[in-house]
Amino acid sequence: QHAAQSLLVGTGTEVPLVQGGSTDYVNLDYAASAPALREVAEHVAALLPLYSSIHRGAGYLSQVCTEVYEAARTTVAAFVGARADDVVIFTRNTTDSLNLLARSVPGDTVVLDIEHHANFLPWLGTGGGRTVVAEPTVGATLAALEAELRRTTAALVAVTGASNVTGESLPLRRVAEIAHRHGARLAVDGAQLLPHRRVDLAATGIDYLAVSGHKLYAPYGAGALIGRRDWLDAAEPHLAGGGAVRAVTVDGATWTDSPARHEAGSPNLIGAAALAKACQVLGALPEAQQEAREAALLQRLRTGLAELGIEPLRIWGQEDDETGGAAGETEDTVAIVTFTVPGWTAEEVATYLSAEHGIGVRDGRFCAHPLLRRLTGAATAIRASVGLDTDERAIDRLLGALAALLTDGPRWTYATADGAVVP
Ligand code: PMP
Asked: Which of 284, 299, 316 is the last residue of a domain?
């Protein structure tokens, strides 16, 4: 555990409490964004003196930066098990990656109604999005997906790698098989899966993967779309501008191939290098150990919540051995838990946890309005999510604070409309 904690910048932060004094901060909001890895911060600091233009200069610094940028591509590709002919396009984040892909798909895209808006709205925007309503079990959901693909031709299936609301994950190998059987490709929104699980595109059959650096322990501003080249090379450039062209005349341009085709403008060298360094560090962590540690924390949180009478939100029920567990694939859940507390709004709970206990969680509808509407009706909810430096103490602090809320109520009254706190 200490080894994991020393991986991160900014652990051990003291935060003020509303009743006075301060406490060490408990960050349980890794699903929103994760603090930088120490090695990432050091890598960024080492790059700053070398800062120069990429792909555009013959000078030494320019050559070094170009080399670093292109090496970052190779590192990201290796981290996700990309096929030799896959392309890595650096983007701003997962949202950007999925918007780029949505404009490159030569046909309809089938999505589930459980998605983060980043993997929902881009497809609606293209006019080619078809939504399948998730069923109460994984097996029935896969069957519904297949029925939709059988009903009419689609070019792509786009699913989340792990739900940002419940942490639940479809068996991606099975989804890929289903998509491919019907002539469609599979895109995975990896924003929540990649921080918790290794993904291997070649082995799983995922055709496109979208990721965000800031959820992978790198800074904001860089993400990637990794996947098959042909659609991306046939698509209009994501942005028109320098670097994306082969030749320009006063009448128009001929565009170059991916990845440069979709990376017009001066690239985000620091972002790409930081993302790659994070991939390198995460890739070297002991995978089984990390998964086991997070599974134990998840179990501790779930058990503690159950003892308080709080049931986490779930998309799928347990009974699913007919189809969900085939081909070595089982339903999986990463360490994200979302719940409501009877008698209190999510805003009140989140404000109480922060102000009185120094615990950071997320409250709201998590950019997944269709899913939240289904799981809670109109209500917002509270999300706790685990990261590399989360320990049992953090989980127990949250459980203790919730127990105190349920028995004693908050010491203060929280007026949520304007965020004001009154005694
Ligand atoms: N998909 C999922 C599942 C997410 O959780 C998020 C971030 N909350 C996104 C996509 C969007 O990521 P970003 O804001 O970095 O584009």
From this structure: 284
